[in-house]
Amino acid sequence: MPLGFRKTSRAQKGVASEQQVASGSSAPERAEVLGEVEELGIGMFWATDAEDRLSFMSQRALADLGAIGDGLIGKPLTSVFFDIEAEAGAPTQRSLAFKLKARSKLDEQIVAVPDGRGSTRWWRLNGRPLLDSTGTFRGYRGSAVDISAQYAYETQVARQSQVDELTGLANRRKLGERLTAMLAAFRASQRSCALMMLDLDRFKQVNDTMGHPAGDELLKQVAQRLTTIVGNHGEVGRLGGDEFQVLLPDMDDRGTLGELANRIVQSVSQPYQINGRRAIIGTSIGIAIAPYDGVEADELTSAADMALYSAKETRGGTFCFFTSELRDAASKTALLGDRLRDAVDRGELKLAYQPLVDPRTNEVKCFEALLRWHDEDQGDISPAQFIPVAENDDLIIKIGEMALRQACIDALDWPDTVRVAVNVSAKQFVRPGYRKAVAAALRASGLSPQRLELEITESVFVGDLETVDAIFRDLKKLGVRLALDDFGTGYSSLGYLKHGHFDKIKIDQSFVRGCTENGDINPAIIAAIVALAKALGMETVAEGVEAMDELALVKERGADLVQGYIFSRPMTQDQVLAQFAEGSARFRPSGPPRHRSERITIFRKVGLIHEDHYYDVILRNLSKTGARITGLAGVPVGTDVVLDLGHGQLVVSKVVNASENSQGLRFETALISDGSGGFMTRHRISPYSLAEAGIPLAALGAGAFPLAKWREANKTIPKFVQLELSVPNA
Predict the structure, then answer these.
(1) In this structure, are residues 451 and 486 in contact, taking their beta carbons and an 8 Å threshold?
(2) Does CATH number 3.30.70.270 belong to domain 162-323?
(3) Domain 599-722 adopts which CATH fold?
(4) Helix count and strand count (H, E) for the chain
(5) Quick one: which of 348, 462, 495, 623 could link to 599 by a disulfide (CB 3.0–4.6 Å)?
(6) Taking the model in full, what pTM does it have?
(7) Domain spans of the chain?
(8) C-alpha 423: how far from its chain's center?
(9) Cis before 291? omega within 30
(10) What gap in Å lies between CA 599 and CA 621, rounded to an integer?
């Protein structure tokens, strides 16, 4: 008789006699039956003593576990059987240690069992606590079934339903479940979490030019980069296609989130090596934060989606935070697209020309052609509004070809020493036949190729670089000049400059703005770009120069040409011809002596808090460090106030200048960039805190800060006079 069964008889001696009388069977007969049951593969058997140490394991079980089985008797049960890891497909169950301590029944308990051969098996345990006639616990008696094959299959199937097969990241289903569960738990504990939605820019081009296997490999590398950057701060998943998502618990600092988003953009934009070929893509990111932008999963996802759309619409390769204004902007964008198509068909888009001037002689060397649109109903519409709409609708190709033809025709009437620069979108650049379109425009106008410059942004480097390189070579054969626009703001292209395609580098205005402020590192960046360009035999242009101190700095740093309001705003063709007709090719600089902090002209109703009163005011302009408001009278200089920008954005401020109905505010803490040309506070007051003050979450719309209840409880006489507000058209 096997040793195990002899131990069973001894261990169960106290109850065996009663069982034998009831069944009419002897101990040897029962052991024989148990042995036959084991041999049939129906089950295995085990027992513990009162201290939960293994006192018996049947022979089949010992054999399955190999050499280690001989040393298991006498060990704690929890050092023989281990709880399964919490992973996709694993059953949810109390731990084995918890059930043993509670003397609970073991019903279908799944455990992991090392088999002594370097592998793990999975058993399903059933067991009952054994009590003697006095009620004293004597140990467990139980059975086990090896379910290794079934468990491995079921967990694999379950894992596949929650894990993206290509990248190994969480898939859409798992991400949705995690977000829903997290938001539900965080509502109870009043915690926050952020959601990032990512969409790869120009991924389709890689798929089309390099093949789907290359696209799959690219997605794997993107997943690796995202996982590395996010680390243990959050969970990265793939929604499908070229869309990814990042879930970041306990994170609502928009400064930190913006820095993380920027690192992701920069990392994803670095070159990839795929099957011996080099490709570059980019990414755009939309960010929403619970509970500010939504308290349900669908609300937060929708908010992040709208922010992502805004980021892509802005220019791509950037990030954007959700604001309530984006909802209105989405519907306005659709209407704008319809109006733009009609405007193109009617020929309403015109060209204006801004001079690029030699800062040492003030002589114009080139004019950049800029699109302008005057709508009969809405007036002048900014290119920042309609160009992204055209990009998304492929209308940019038609607009771009029109602009190229007209610019060549107009430039023919200028002096031969003056060139014309035309912007080229990435879609237009990589479209088959672009070289023919350029050649046709030159041929139709009669303009010399050397007088045409094509301004190309760094986004053209996204995708298959071999195709891009071939397009560059074809254009150079035509004899046109190539300029790299907005250098340093988009995708990595520094190494690409060595190919020698470009004749000019345009230093983006973001490096020029504020370059004269104390401690700013932009002067060093400008000097480095100029030195790089000179070493490669390229011309440099400093964009966006508006103040005399900025002009002096870029001139001293060696920029060859300057473009900006300091010399001239964009001019019509008639104005350009009139200037040349007067015999002048020079533009004298004119502007403020010093740079002022970047500010946005805006007309929006916001709130102002002073003591226990809430006033309505009009926000006229906004910078990182201050703002100008109208709508109040009798506000003395030096007054401490709080500006309510909506959605819990409170800015502690001081009135630093005032007129009869207008005040200038200086912020105690500077605002930060929102990633899409605007400003925002780093932190917001949580709506949970507002709800505790008695304000329902549903009431927390734009400007509906709980301080609105202060209006109902005026504790003192208002110090300021509330004027009638009028919001002019932006």
Answers:
(1) no
(2) yes
(3) Thrombin, subunit H (2.40.10)
(4) 22, 33
(5) 623
(6) 0.57
(7) 3-156, 162-323, 349-581, 599-722
(8) 28
(9) yes
(10) 6
